[in-house]
Amino acid sequence: MNLTRFEKGLKKLSEVDGNAGENVIAALNDIAPDLGKYIVEFAFGDIYCRENLNLQEREMITLSSLMTLGGCETQLEVHINGALNVGITPKKIIEIFIQCIPYTGFPRVLNAVGVAKRVFQLRKAG
Fold first, then answer.
1. Burial of 38 (0-12, 13-18, 19+ CB in 10 A)
2. What is the pLDDT of residue 25?
3. What are the structural domain ranges in the chain?
4. d(CA 113, CA 7)
5. What is residue 10's DSSP assignment?
6. Predicted local distance difference test score (pLDDT) of residue 120
7. Residue 62 CA from chain centroid, whole number
8. Average predicted confidence (pLDDT) for the chain
9. Which of 23, 73, 77, 116 has minimal Cβ neighbours within 10 Å of its Cβ?
10. DSSP string across 22-37
11. 53-126 architecture in CATH?
12. Are 55 and 15 in contact (CB under 8 A)?
C-alpha cells in the first residue's frame, strides 16, 4: 500500500516523538492547520524518511542545528525528547552541545544544556 506524504510523515514523526508530535500538530489545527501539514509532509514525510541517515544521526544533526540557531528552546525541547526516544543517551546529547562550543560559543551551548537539564528532569520525574 502506498502511503500519502502525510501518512508517511505522521508514521515517522511518531517514531521520533511518540504522541508528542501529534500534540504539536493538534495544537496548530485551530490557528495554522497548513503549518502542521507542512511539518508532517515535508520535514518528516520527505526529509526524515530519506535513506542514508538513521534517526539517531538525524536527531543529532537537528539538535546541533537548533542549538546553533539559538532562540529555538521549544523546538530544542521537542527534539531532545525525540533524541531520547530514538536511543540517544543524555550523556551523548550533552556531548553534542559541548562539541559546538568552538563554533557557536558558550551562551548558546549553556542555553541548550539548560533545556536538556529540564527535559531530563521531567522524564525522570514522569
1. middle
2. 81
3. 1-50, 53-126
4. 33
5. H
6. 98
7. 6
8. 93
9. 23
10. HHHHHHHTTT-HHHHH
11. Up-down Bundle (1.20)
12. yes
